[in-house]
């Protein structure tokens, strides 16, 4: 299997999206981003991603669960946990599809390490 490092970041907060995209680029990933559920669906229908970094609560009352039917079963998913632990617990309990979880208070390097571990590959030029 060839690893392309394609990642989709889905978060309705543009600041968080930009932060994640920049950090993932620094560690050799090729990230796209979506700030809305609709944009995420369009990208998922058009592109193949190895990893999705997904906010638990999206715009228009949508949740991470709503996007699962558009995500290939081989794609790894890191769920960004929101402040509302009740909502996150409901999402976690409804699906075993999520491969890892990151709390809202995270560092970009921490996410890159988790992403790399999930993809089970190494970065030839950088040490995480």
Outline the secondary-structure elements:
Layout: E1 6-10, H1 14-26, E2 30-34, H2 37-46, E3 51-55, H3 64-67, E4 76-81, H4 85-94, E5 100-103, H5 108-119
Parallel strand pairs: 1-2, 1-3, 3-4, 4-5
- The Cα radius of gyration reads 14 Å
Reported CATH architecture: 3-Layer(aba) Sandwich
Would you identify the CATH H-level superfamily? Response regulator
DSSP strand count = 5
Q: Treating each run of at least 4 consecutive H or I residues as one helix, how many helices?
A: 5
Q: What is the C-level CATH assignment?
A: Alpha Beta
* Strand/helix succession: EHEHEHEHEH
> How many independent structural domains?
1
Enumerate the strands of the largest sheet in spatial order, edge to edge or round the barrel.
Answer: 2-1-3-4-5
* CATH third-tier fold name: Rossmann fold
Based on Cα principal axes, name the global outline: globular
Look at the structure and give the mean pLDDT.
81
Summarize the structure.
This protein has 128 residues and is of the alpha/beta class.
Structure overview:
By secondary structure, the protein is of the alpha/beta class. The chain has a single domain, classed as Response regulator (Rossmann fold). The protein has helices at 14-26, 37-46, 64-67, 85-94, 108-119, and strands spanning 6-10, 30-34, 51-55, 76-81, 100-103. Strands 2-1-3-4-5 form a five-stranded parallel beta sheet. Helix 4 (85-94) links the parallel strand 4 (76-81) and strand 5. The longest helix is centred in the N-terminal third of the chain and has 13 residues, at 14-26. The chain starts with 5 loop residues before the first strand and ends in a 9-residue tail after the last helix. Residues 121-128 have low confidence and may be disordered.
């Amino acid at each position: 299997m060839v690893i392309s490092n394609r990642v989709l970041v889905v978060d309705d907060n543009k600041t968080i999206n930009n932060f994640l995209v920049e950090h993932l680029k620094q560690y050799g990933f090729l990230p796209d981003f979506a700030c809305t559920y609709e944009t995420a669906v369009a990208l998922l229908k058009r592109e193949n991603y190895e990893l999705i970094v997904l906010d638990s609560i999206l715009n228009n009352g949508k949740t991470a669960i709503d996007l699962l039917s558009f995500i290939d079963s081989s794609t790894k998913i890191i769920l960004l946990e929101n402040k509302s632990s009740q909502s996150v617990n409901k999402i976690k309990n409804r699906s075993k599809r999520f491969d890892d979880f990151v709390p809202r208070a995270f560092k970009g390097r921490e996410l890159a390490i988790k992403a790399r571990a999930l993809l089970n590959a190494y970065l030839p030029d950088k040490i995480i």
